[in-house]
Each structure stands twice: as structure tokens, then as C-alpha cells.
Amino acid sequence: MTALKSSLIISTYNWPEALELCLLSVLAQETLPDEILIADDGSGEATKFLIEKYRGSFNISLKHVWHEDNGFRLAQIRNKAIAAAKGDYIIQIDGDLILHKKFISDHIAFSKSGSFVRASRIYLDQKLSKELLVSKSIKFSIFNKGLSNKLSALHVPFLWNYFEYNYKSKGDERYEIHGCNMAFWRKDAIAVNGYNEDFKGWGPEDKEFVVRLLNSGVKKRFIKMGGQVFHIYHNENMKENLNSNLSIFKDAIKDVKTFCVKGINQYL
């Protein structure tokens, strides 16, 4: 049996301090992916210098997939990164996360053909986040003050099968996803034409992607109490285009879409 080849895609925009903690947590992984791609939505030189600084610390490929800053274009930069990826299996996160040390190994162990995976995000409060950013440290525990939803932070692999198909899988909850912590097969993403680039600004581009995966027959699975990420506090993004973006999402549900017009095929 051929070993699974995994690609870790990390999206980022002009927050190199957080990205550094994220990369430190990747270095601390018990199992590394086969490659890392930084999906950079137009960051400045500080992010470029940081990536160059860490490139020599990894014994795997670290690619910087960048386009110029022309507003919030997360869907497009993720498509470009998926297109550039060499792995069969995409593990997708954001650059404002600290990964559990078993994050990659959990996702690889949980992978199954014909499915995509959602996993948990635990929030760090403003005070703890600032302490970690200032000290450039990724060391904390679930007993620290400043962690939300601590139950989700517990690492309990023997419960994975219990939650796999039963957690947040009914009604509209089946579309719920954390685009900052999900995994899918590259071929499945390409089959539905990746992320829909009609999304402009912040909006549920990850949920709309999930709608098309589900409509195409790919099953959703939840890795609960495994594959966790810890979210560094920041202010919420502006949502000026939210109504139009929600319309795209709702249309995908109503019209049972399995494909988007403006997607990843532009880069393949």
C-alpha cells in the first residue's frame, strides 16, 4: 500500500508574529507533513522574511504561495495553494493557530477515502495570546487560564469513532466547518473546482465548498478530541460583503451545486 502524501496549507495575511508561533508548532509535531505551503493573501516583506528564516529549519519543502494584496481573497489564494500542492491529502489551517503536537499524525490516522474532515478549534483569550506572542512561546496546557471549550482540547483517540459521523451531522449543522482546521483529498477538491472565487471579503466560502463536496457524495466526518488547534486572539474581520456572500452559499444549497464556475481549474 502506497503511503499517504500530505500537504499542510497555512493561510496568512500580514501577521508574521502569529505565523511564527504556528510554524514553531509545526516544527514540534510528532509527525511532519510531506510539505508545507503558506497561502499568503498579499502580506508584506515581514512575512516573506519570516518564511525565509524558517525554511532552513524544516527538512521538508516550505513553499510560499503569494499574490498581491487586492482585498480579502482567501478563496483564491487557497485555490492557488491546493493547485501547487504535491500531496494527495490536504490538511488546511490558518496562520493564527498553534497546533497540538499530534495534529498532523491525528489527521493522517483519521483520513479515509470518500470523506473530508472537520476538527476542533480552541480559543485562547487576549491575555494568554499576548503572553505567547511576546515570549514567542507555544508552551501552555489545558489547565491554563484563558482557554475556552476545554473539553474539546482533551486528546482522547478512543472516542473518535463515537463522534465520527454523529457530531454536528444533521440539518444545517452538516455544512458547519472550520476552514482553519479541516482536511480533504486534493482530487475531491479539484472535482468540485475548489473554492468559489465569487466570494469577496469575509464570508462562508468554506461552508459553500463543503456544500459542493457533500452534494458530490463526499461524506463529512468529525475528529472530536483529536487534531486540535488553538486560536490566537484577534479582532474579528470586517464583514461588509456578508449578505452577498451568504447568497452564494444559500444558492449552492438550493441548487444542489457540485461545481463552481470560478475556481481552481484556472491554476491547474
Supply the key terms:
268 residues, 7-stranded mixed β-sheet, 3-stranded mixed β-sheet, alpha/beta, globular, 10 helices, Spore Coat Polysaccharide Biosynthesis Protein SpsA, Chain A, 10 strands
In short:
By secondary structure, this protein is an alpha/beta fold. It is 34% helix and 18% strand.
Q: Quaternary state, please?
A: single chain
Shape: globular
Topology order in helix (H) and strand (E) letters: EHEHEHEEHEEHHHEHHEEH
**Structural class, judged by helices and strands?**
alpha/beta
User: Which strand order does the major sheet show?
Assistant: 3-2-1-4-8-6-9
CATH architecture verdict: Alpha-Beta Complex
Low-confidence stretches: none
Task: Give an overview in words.
This protein has 268 residues and is an alpha/beta fold. The protein has one domain: Spore Coat Polysaccharide Biosynthesis Protein SpsA, Chain A. It is built from ten helices and ten strands. It has a seven-stranded mixed sheet with strand order 3-2-1-4-8-6-9, sandwiched between helices. A three-stranded mixed sheet has the order 5-10-7. Helix 1 (16-27) links the parallel strand 1 (6-12) and strand 2. The longest helix has 13 residues, at 242-254. 41% of the residues are buried. The mean pLDDT is 95.
